User: Fold this.
Amino acid sequence: MIQGADMSNRYIIPVSNTNYVTPVQTNNDVESSSKVKPVECQTCKNRKYVDGSDEADVSFKAPGHISPGSSYARVMSHEQEHVANARQKTGGNKNARLLSATVSLKMGVCPECGRTYVAGGTTNTRIQYSKDNPYDNGRKVIEGSFLAGQNVDEAV
Assistant:
């Protein structure tokens, strides 16, 4: 502990554990006052989230509101739905294997109140299909028939 420093009303955050979003500290005197009510930020109140993927069975297909305090949990949960869909797609298929699934979250700062929030997320999945896939072989035959004769050597 640092001597002479006032450690009251401060959060102590371990440096090694960075798996969560630090909440914004507010003045408790204003929140508990009966005369002064906390003002809700209109930018945070009107912020909407919507899914932009083509998967129909995930949340936020219609625009919905998420509070800044719960944005990390809700957005991460939504992105995990995409990961679960990739696992389900490869789980019953012996010709497919899930190589990787990564989730990236984008952070933002509200210009009105200064609160940090998760502004969105992206899930990237890599699936490897085995070479003995009959659909893949048929696709190669069809593509080959389209490409045949497109390159003509006129010098001969």
Remarks:
- The two ends are 85 Å apart (CA to CA).
- Residues 1-30 have pLDDT under 50 and may be disordered.
- The first strand starts at residue 48 and ends at 49.
